Amino acid sequence: MELLKQRILKDGTEIGTEVVKVDSFLNHQLDIGLFMALGKEIHRRFGHLGINKILTIEASGIGIAAITAIYFDLVPVVFAKKAQPNTMTEEFYGAPVKSFTKGTVSIARVSKNYLNANDKVLIIDDFLAHGEAAAGLANLVEQAGGTVCGIAAIIEKEFQGGSKKLRDAGYLVDSLAVITKVEDGKIYFKD
Ligand code: 5GP
Q1: Key word NAD present in the record (predicted)?
Q2: Fewer CB near the terminus (10 Å): N or C of the chain?
Q3: Which CATH number characterizes residue 120's domain?
């Protein structure tokens, strides 16, 4: 998606060769006008699949998942929690997820009240790197007997292998901007 690529080139910075920082519009300050364009584009790519729920993981996926739901007829948005708050007294589905940024493993949790066998789910996340978060979310949907209709990432770093791993496992994966490498202070895109 050209608009997003241009925005990453304009406002994104790289940290070494592995991490891209886009705090000014996606990960700290949120550009809602841009999110609306991204949500519309996600709907263009996944809107024909009969999706009735969007699933993401706290915290950075929540904003874009919420705006995207507007374009999917206001389907419910569920976000997995990374820690068990003492308000989560009901039973939950849990899946281990290794954090890309922290290197620690946490359990992604969703209450059994909010995922079920009738769900046709679109998984959305801000970044797709090694695919750990998306695979964990897919695991939660499948524990509930639901269907993963697709996985949408805003920014994919293809060189970290997550999309290949997820496609090899049979999932439909599509990302709005695909980074092929980060080298000498420059970000390179597919296409
Ligand atoms: P994965 O689980 O695919 O390895 O990594 C995806 C998760 O790690 C996303 O939820 C995102 O929050 C975080 N992440 C991965 N790579 C980056 C990056 O380059 N920049 C930022 N800001 N977050 C990232």
Answers
A1: no
A2: C
A3: 3.40.50.2020
DSSP character at residue 73: T
Structure tokens at 28: 């700290």
Domain count for the chain, please give it: 1
Domain that holds residue 101: 2-189
| pLDDT, position 161 | 98
Q: How far is the CA of 37 from the centre of ligand 1 (A)?
A: 21
Ramachandran region of residue 145, left (φ > 0), alpha (ψ -120 to 50) or beta?
left
Q: Report whether residue 62 contacts ligand 1, using a CB cutoff of 6 Å.
A: no
101 CB under 6 A from ligand 1? yes
Ligand 1 closest atom vs CA 160: 4
pLDDT of residue 164 exceeding 90, the answer is yes
CB 152 within 8 A of CB 45: yes
- Consult the annotation and say whether 131 binds a ligand: yes
